[in-house]
Amino acid sequence: MTELIGYLASALVAVSLLTSNVLRLRALNLAGALVFVLYGALAGAWPVFAVNLFVAVVDLWHIIRLRSRRDVFKLMPVGEDDPLLANFLSYHARGIRQYFPGFSLSGLKSPRCVFILRNLLPVGLFIYTEEKPEIRVRLDYVAEDYRDLKNARFLFNRPQNAETFRGFTHFTAEAGSPKHAGYLRRVGFEAGAERGIFRKKI
To answer: 174, 195, 194: which is closest to 184 by C-alpha?
Structure first.
């Protein structure tokens, strides 16, 4: 049993190193360190116990700091011919295909493109079409390192939305996968009568 606990701790630490999201990395590393603390105590390996207790405290400190940090968010509308837009779509093409397999900017009629800036960095891209009374979400993509829902909550739940999207009653989005559907539910969308269609009041 003690040996299995050691293997579990090693696996958690190894998995933590495979993620690029800093908060997730710290959380997994913390879990691995705590399991190593247990392993060290059971095996009587006190150097392992001590160093991993220190690592756990450091990870916990970083997690608290990351969760309490206040980020500054802004929305930046851009035109279809903006170079930043083309570069963002090209750089994140693989991830966009994963969540929005049918997306094509050129296939949209009068799309509105908005970057989500986080501390002045363009970390997300929101593309929609106006189909009164709804805002039809065509792309809602965030760079992997920033997928902590803060960007989406700023976009969909901030009080200024009613003014930004004046004249429209709700957002409508089509879930491209079960994971995407779960994301939509977490940011306040509800499943509509049509399969895969989710709506949220503005």
So the answer is: 174
